[in-house]
Structure formats: structure tokens, C-alpha cells
Amino acid sequence: MIGLLTVLIFLPVVMAAPTFLFGKKRTNVAKLLGVGTTATVFAISVIIVVLFQYGYTGFQFTDTASWASSFGLNYVVGIDGISLPLLIIATFLCLLAALGSRDMISLREPEYYALFLLFETGIIGVFTSLNLILFYVFWEVVLIPMFFFIGIWGGPRRKYASLKFLIFTYAGSAIMLFGFVALYAWTGSTGSPSFDYTTLITRAASLTLPLQVAASLATFVGFAVKLPIFPLHTWLPDAHVEAPAPVSVLLAGLLLKMGGYGLIRYNLLLFPAADKLLWPAFTAIGLITMVYGASVAFVAQDLKRMIALTSVNHMGYVLLGTFTLTSVGVSAAVFQMFAHGLAVGMLFLMSGYIHEHAGTRNINELKGLRGKMPTTTVLLILGSMAAMAVPGFANFISEYQVIQGALSVAYLYGLAILAAALTVGYFLWMLRRVVMTPPAGPKNELRTGPLLILTAFLVPLLVFGVYPSPLLGSAIKPTVDHVLSVLFPGGR
Amino acid sequence: MAVFGLLVTPAGLIRRGKSGIGVGAYAGLAGIVIALVSTIWLGFNGGPPILFGGFQIDLFTYFFAGVLLLVSLFVAISSFDFMKGDPNTAPYFGLLLLSTLGMIVLAASMDLILLYVGWELMSVPTYALTAIRKKDPNSNEAAMKFFVLSALSSALIVYAISLTFGVTGSTNLQTIAGSLATITPDTRSFALIAIVLFVAGFGVKMAVVPFHMWIPDAFEGAPTTVSALLASGAKMAGFAAAFRVFIVGFSTINVDWYSTFAIVAIATMTLGNVAALMQKSFTRLLAYSSIAQAGYVLIALATPFTVTTVTREPLGLAGGLFHVLNYSIVKTGAFVAAAAVATRLPVNTLDSFTGLGRRMPQTAFNITIFFLALAGVPPLNGFFSKVMIFTGAVYSPFSWGGYLAVAALINSGFSMSYYGWIIKRMYFDDPGDSSKIPEPKAYTSVMWIATALVFIIGIYPDPWIRLVLSVAGSL
């Protein structure tokens, strides 16, 4: 019996072929099929959200099938409270990015929408697969369309950026794959070797410390490149700046979350002994990444580059929160991914629209935006407020709780406040230069369609910012409480 | 006995092939198809291994025969375009079949003498094939280099065989395995020399560092379809011989030849990948990437006997065999694509590939798929064989197994840089002249078949993994 999740995963890739073939004759068909499919997928994910049993801590909607059973590989998918929020933003952001693409992509559309759907299959698969090799397959399926997105539809330095992105992330994945393969081999002596997550989670914990550390570090490299962390982040500004705006939404909103999700799902939950040894190093890297990202964003001249660097800044919170090993910290890390995906997705899409209408993305040249695009300006301010983590937005709750979790571990992590302060600083300075300058040039407002798309990002941010408990309290928190109590029976 | 019929079929057709140009080609093609179909049929319905003199026709033979015939089928189909207008079509197809027959004999032999006969039967026609463009100095130079090194490798193998016979008193591999198990210290050193000579002899064909020097020159100089045969067919036959000799014959000897293979594997992968990055010619790049791929199969030879409770058969060995199959399909496809580009565009430098995505969309798309498969991107076929090989390495009882896997994975990650670079050239770079180039039908059909196989094996690898596991068990 084919379950909802399987439909959700494979519907986009199945639709990719007709999108390409029929789209060749008439590009409108490609747009229609692309947007229609993402809308359908979003609708199915809403059904899943409704049917999800909140408070239940195990995996739900599981689907299993024999795939390459002769090698211990099975098709296993399922979601729990940690993957649910990521699944929703994946389908939601794909829909909004596809809608935004209609305005911003005018070159080789059939190929674009076909790759877009392939990407969607990959990203949903990453958040739902419960077999390590299956996870890796989807992980790489995400990578290839992204390489082409940046390389074909990107900006002036697209060739350099795309190749850099491909090499960085592929090398990271290869090292991550070593962790998976090693886990299969090392746990094979205690029973029949398996790549199934649920089997491994019970076995990996009994590995000796050196083996846990080795596997943990190998997977960490793969996830850290995607997240990205401080010394491995250099692909990110290039890729985000050169990618077309809807693709930047996917990159910052979803692709980075793959790293965060992997850190929690695999690094944190598989290797308890390694966690207890390595957490100071990982949290320190998180802290450095936060402060570094914020400092570099200060000097960015390009609006899009600045937004890209906020991602480095904000994903540091995920690393910090995860490896506090506290329930508050880990839950907040998951919630942070949800909130940041929406906020940064909105800002990226907006930067694309602003570029189209104002002709530039340079912060110093974008003078007097309030006169040219008054409604967009309001949205820009609101989006920036979300990214600054102003109370009332979901980002406030997640960032506040990350810092709370970190402080409960050691007072030293009070330094995280520094990153938060810097974030407010560079956003306000950007708004000062872009918005608070005398109006210049004729009015050139966005049409209603784009404005609605941008507003759609704000709705969940505000709803969950004011009332987070449907997601944070009843989905994320119980699951995190449960897995952590299994992981560290005696407390951390 | 039916197997002999199938082995002789191609040989018999050669004579007919010489009667007329067009007829020869079709007869050759028909011979390969008949042989391939009967191999597959016999592989599934054949009973216990057939022993006949020095032949042992078992699942291993069927597997390699199937792979080799598939390669030679690809080469034959694409040769229809490549040899168009060439007066030597019939000898070309005849030599192709003869060489394929040699490879199959190699995979079927259980006796070292017969193995050597197969080796020569495979090699001699390829010298002539490499030089088939008589007026092309590059082709002649390549043939000469190839011939000298190949002759050297044959000599090494003969010497190794004679040493083995001196030590064990037999040329039958199973008898050799029996007497090597109880070897005395005074004859042991001779057995060691024999192992080294076998590695060197087979290594020349397997494209193993440091015996790889001839590969880039020969692949670049030879007609591109012949390069496909050399890169996939001859190389895989070399691996077939190595599997037979080392796994069957020398596995009982109490000498650590495994770690030797591990070191050679790392050297081969690394050199292949690093050198590939610096190439300016597409066929040379393919040549170095094929050296790198040989390194992955060598890992399987270094850590062959890992048995897990799921697979129940040697995992590393099965991974190696699987990689042989996957590599052959992909590499032949890539060389055929190179031939397609070479026949339409005057120069064989990487500049011809600029903007190929617009100029020759089908070829460019297929090259992309082949490259991603070579780099090991899932869900394409190369990924699963690599995972099996790496798992076998980590799982192996050797303490260095994990490091070997790390080295291989770093290599695998690194290899994406030059594959990605070519893809970038084809799709992202702007060609000065973006006019469409008609794509030859024979080439594109081979490419599409290869791409289809890449996806079929990659998306549902289970039957293939079962196949290679039972082949590994039969060895």
C-alpha cells in the first residue's frame, strides 16, 4: 500500500517528465505544471499536518518496501515531530518559490521547472527518509538540480559559483557517506548489518567511543558544509548571490536546513558518547559562526549578499542549540530552522523583486525605496524584523530559547547575545540606507501577485510567533524530550 | 558444450565478414547479439559449472562474457558510423569479434596456459585495431606504444606462469591453490615473485599505477571506438584474469598480497583523479578517469572476502564485480559520446565541448549522466557498486580497511571537480558558434541504451546485487 508520504515524495519527480516534454512546445504549460504540482504537494502536506498525531513521539506515516534487500537497503520513510516542521516549510517554500519563478525566470523554462520538481522530490526525501543510504540518495538528488540552477540561470559569476558549490558540497557528502558506511560495518557484528535508521539508533549507542567519534566527525563534515559553519561556508555567499532569487529561497530556506536536520537526526541522536565528548567543540563552532556571519554581513554592499550572510549567522544558532544537548536547545534549533527558512526565504524573494524593479541590489544605491515601492518597503521592514528576531515573530521564540538553552549549560554562552545584537545592527543600518533616505525616482510598485506571495511568508511567522505551541509545544518538544531521554537516560 | 557453440559463433562469422563490406558489419553485429542472448540465457539456465580441459564455464564466466559482449555490442553499433566510408570495415569487425572471443576465453579459463592463450587472442587484434587508420600518424604511434607495453606484459605473464608451474607443478588454478596452501619456505619466494609478475602483467591492461603510462596516449591516438573497447573490454578482461588468478589461485598462500593491492589502489585512484584534472583533451581525461576507476575495483581485490550476515557472500568481491559491470556500461557510453563529438567537430580538445548542451543536446545530456555515474552520484549505477566496495573495505578484518575507504571517498569527492568542470563547459559556457550539429544516429542510440541501463541498474539495483553476489560466491 502506497502511503501519503510516498506520494508526496515521488509526485514531483513523476510530474517532472511531462513538465519538460509538454513544456517544450509551450512554456506556459511548463509553468502551469510546475506551479500546479508544487501546489498539490503542499495540499497533501497540509493533509499530513492535519492527520499527524501530536504528542506521539515515534515515527508516523511510515512506509516500508524492499529496495535492495540483498544488501540490507530498504525503502523506509516516516516523520516525527522533528521532521514535521521541516516538511511543511519544504512544501510551502517550494510552492512560493515556484510562484515567484513565474516572474523571474524567463530562460529555458521547461528545463527549469523539471529540475525544480526534481529538487522538490529530493528535499522532501531528505526530511522523511529513515534509511541512511536512501537519505544519501535524496541528499545528492538535491545537489544536482541546484548546480544547474546556479550555473544556467544565475548571475554574472554563475560559473564560478556553481562549480564551487558542487565541489564543496559533494566532497562534504563523500566524507559523510564514509560515516554511514562505517556505521553499517561497525554495527554489523551485533546483528545483521543494516542501513535502517531505527535499527541503527539502538545499535550505534553501544559502539566504543573512538568509533563513535570517528563516525560522528565524518557525518559532521557533510552536514557542516551544508549548514554551513565558519571555515566551510565560503561557497555560500557566492552561490546565494549568483543564484536567481527563487533558487536562493530554496538554497537558504531548505538546502541549509538539510545540514541542520542531519546534525540533529544523525549526529546528535546516533552517537551519545561522542556528543558528550564533542559538544563543547561543536557549540564553540556554532558560536563563532554566529558572530562571524553577523560581522561579515555588516560590511556587505549587496543586499542579497547581506541576506546570504544572515543565513550563516542564523544557522549558527541551530548548531549551538543542538549541541547544548538540552531539550530547550534542541527544540529551539528545530524551530529556528522553521522560522529562519520563512524569514530568509521572504527576504531573498523580495531582493529579487527589488532588483527587478529598482535595477540594483546595492544597498548604497537603493535610495529612498519608500517612495518608489511603498508597500514593498513595509514588507521589507517586517521581514527584517523577523530576521532580527523582534518579539512577535517566530524567530524571537527560537533564538531566545537557543540562548536560554545555552545559558543553562554555561554562562559563557551569554556571548551569543553579541551575535543577536550585531544582527539588529546590520539590519537597521541596511534599513537606514535603503528606506530612511529621501525618496528618489518615480513610483514603481510591485503588482498584487508578488505582494501576496511575499505576504504569505509573513503569515506563519506571525501566527507561530504569537502562538507557537501548536508546533513547538505539541510536535517538536514532546519528540525532542523523548529522544533525548532515550539518548541520555541519566540526563546530560 | 553449447557454450562452445557460442564462443565459436563470432569466430565463424569473421570469415563470412570478409566477403563484403556491409555484410561483414551486419554479420559481426548479428554474431555479437546471438552470443549475448545465448550467454544471458545460459547464465540463467545453465546448471553446474561445465569443466572441459582448461575451461571452467561457470557463473563468473557468464557474467564477464555478458559484460564483455555488451561492451563489444556497443562498440560494434557505434562503429557503423565511425567506419562509414572506410574500406577496412570487414577486417575491423572481424578483429573486434576475435578480440572479444579472446576476452571470453580469458574469463572461462581455469588453466594458466589457456588463460595466456586468451590473453594473446584478446591483445593481438587490438594492436591492429588501434592502427586501423593506416594513414593517421597518431593512430600508428598509439598502436606502437600499446604494442610494446602489451608485449612486455605478456612476457611478464609467461614468466609468472612458468614460475608458478615450477613451484606448484601445475598450471591448473585449483591445483595451484591446493599446493600453495602447503608451500615450503624455500619455494615461497618464487611464488612471491610470481605474484609480483602477475600484478605487473595484468596491471598493464588493468591500467594500474605504475603500469598506466600507455593508457592516455593509446586512448587518444586510437580510433575512439577502439579506445572504448580498450578502456572497457580489455581492461575488464584484465580484471577477470586477476580475479581468477588471485582469488582462486593465490588466495591460499600465506602472504599478505592484500595490503599490496590496497597501496596500489590508493596510488591508482589518486593519480588518476589528480591527472584527470589537468587534461586538455577529452579522451585523455576519460583515460585518466578510467585509471581512477580501476583503483576502486582494486579495493575490491584488496578486501575481497568480507562476508556479512545479510549478503552471505563476499561483499567486497561482489562490489568489485558490480563496479566492473557499471563501469563498462558508463565508460563505453562516454567513449562513444567522445567519438560522436570527434566525428562532428574538428578538434578533440575540451574546447569542442564548450556549449555542447546547445549544439549537441542529446550527446551532452548523456555525457552528463555518464559523468555523474562515474562520480558516484545516486541513484545512478556507479553509486551502489562504490558503496558495496567501500562497505566491504570498512567491514574487512584488516585494520587499514577504514583508511582505505576514507581515501577512496575523498578521491570520489575530488573526482567531481573535473566531471563538474566538463558539465559546466557543456551547459554554462557560451560557445562562439551555437549552431546545432546533427547527431549521428548509431552513436546516440548506443548512448541512450547505456543511459537507460545506468538508470535501470541505479534505481532498482536489487537483482543486480543478487547477481554479483552469486557470481562472487561461485568463484
> Which chain pair has the greatest contact?
A-B, 43 and 41 residues
Strand content of chain B: under 5%
Number of domains of chain A: 1
| Overall geometric form of chain A | globular
User: Radius of gyration of chain A in whole Å, from Cα?
Assistant: 21 Å
Mean pLDDT of chain B: 84
Give the topology string of chain A: H per helix, E per strand. HHEEHHHHHHHHHHHHHHHHH
User: What is the number of strand segments of chain A?
Assistant: 2
Termini separation of chain A comes to: 41 Å
Strand order of the largest sheet of chain A: 1-2
How many helical elements of chain A? 19
Question: Helicity level of chain A, as a percent range?
Answer: over 70%
How would a crystallographer describe the biggest sheet of chain A?
2 strands, antiparallel
Distance N terminus to C terminus of chain B?
20 Å
Query: Which consecutive residue ranges of chain A, at least 5 long each, have pLDDT under 50?
Result: none
Query: In percent, how helical is the residue content of chain B?
Result: over 70%
Strand adjacency order, main sheet of chain B: 1-2
Largest sheet of chain B: 2 strands, antiparallel
Question: How would you describe this protein?
Answer:
The complex is a heterodimer of chains A (492) and B (475). By secondary structure, chain A is mainly alpha-helical. Chain A has one domain. Chain A has 19 helices and two strands. Chain A has helices spanning 4-25, 27-51, 83-104, 109-128, 132-153, 158-186, 197-204, 209-226, 235-242, 245-270, 272-299, 303-322, 327-358, 369-372, 374-388, 394-409, 416-434, 448-466, 469-487, and strands spanning 60-68, 73-79. By secondary structure, chain B is mainly α. Chain B contains 19 helices and two strands. The longest helix of chain B has 32 residues, at 137-168. The model of chain B is unreliable at 1-6 and 15-20 (pLDDT under 50). Classes of the chains: A mainly alpha (492), B mainly alpha (475). At the A-B interface, β1, α5 and α6 of A face α16, α17 and α19 of B.
